[in-house]
TrEMBL record:
GO terms for biological process: protein targeting to ER; signal peptide processing. Belongs to the SPCS1 family. It is found in: Endoplasmic reticulum membrane. This is Signal peptidase complex subunit 1. Keywords: Endoplasmic reticulum, Membrane, Transmembrane, Transmembrane helix. It is a multi-pass membrane protein. GO terms for cellular component: signal peptidase complex. It comes from the Eukaryota. Component of the signal peptidase complex (SPC) which catalyzes the cleavage of N-terminal signal sequences from nascent proteins as they are translocated into the lumen of the endoplasmic reticulum. Dispensable for SPC enzymatic activity. InterPro entries: Spc1/SPCS1. The chain crosses the membrane at residues 21-39, 45-68. The lineage of its organism: Eukaryota, Fungi, Dikarya, Ascomycota, Saccharomycotina. Pfam families: SPC12.
Amino acid sequence: MSFSYLEGNIDFKGQELANRITKKLITFGAIISFLVGFLSDNILYTVYTFAAFGLLTASLVIPPFSFYKKNPVTWLPKKSKIEIQH
């Protein structure tokens, strides 16, 4: 059984994009959660709203979607070994 779909191989630009998405959604979620809790005067609504934004963020940044893999890293070719003689 292969679990290759669970491997999180994304490129460096994809990591940067995931980081930006995370920061923006968590910040937006905190603001919305505060407003929901303040307007409803219920701390549980604040917690539930923020948890929903946390789950949304996790569902967008944890799976290695194809838009995180647009810029693959090209590695240098392997150098041949040089023997050192004493």
